[in-house]
Design brief:
Layout: H1 10-26, H2 28-38, H3 47-59, H4 64-71, H5 75-87, E1 91-95, E2 103-107, H6 109-129, H7 135-157
Helix pairs in contact: 1-2, 3-5, 4-5
Length: about 170
């Protein structure tokens, strides 16, 4: 008698991945998770604002078109996120140091402070979520999620199976 577990059908695995993805995106737990990491009330940031803040911290001043491309959204969506950040005093529009005719978006001192606090809350949340995972499990999860994102990018670009994970 063999101790090997039966391999589930590809269809059942696809269903499980799809269900997990749905729960990550829209699950009831996300309603409780968002305020923990992204703030509450008038200080709350939406996901678009958080993504834009991340990019401004890690890439410095950027043109709106570059920001939209990096966020993988259209220009109007990026503009709305930036407008909310500017209104909250977390980002500013200014002339480019390289070309005074060009406007760029940059993080403000307050934006950097808010982002630092956000990063700490995010780190604490992920540490708590992954507390039951071994270091090896964490590494495997990170690797698989990076491959999943690369696969998604490849699928939507018509190059499924050929995409390599991108560093973020």
């Amino acid at each position: 008698m063999s101790d090997a577990k039966p391999v589930p059908s590809d269809l059942s695995v696809l269903f499980r991945v799809g269900a997990a993805w749905r729960e990550l995106r829209r699950g009831a737990a996300m309603q409780a998770f968002r305020p923990i990491v992204y703030g509450e009330g008038s200080d709350a940031l939406d996901l678009g604002q958080v993504d834009a803040l991340d990019l401004l911290v890690f890439h410095g001043s950027v043109r709106m078109g570059e920001l939209a491309d990096a966020l993988r959204v259209d220009a109007s969506t990026a503009t709305r996120a930036v407008n909310r950040l500017v209104d909250a005093g977390l980002a500013q529009r200014k002339r480019s140091d390289d070309d005074g005719r060009v406007m760029v978006v940059a993080i403000t001192k307050r934006g950097s402070e808010v982002h630092k606090a956000l990063m700490e809350r995010r780190r604490e949340a992920l540490a708590g979520i992954l507390a039951g995972f071994s270091p090896r499990d964490r590494l495997e999860l990170a690797t698989l999620l990076e491959r999943f994102v690369a696969g998604l990018d490849g699928y939507v670009s018509g190059e499924a199976g050929r995409a390599e994970p991108q560093a973020s």
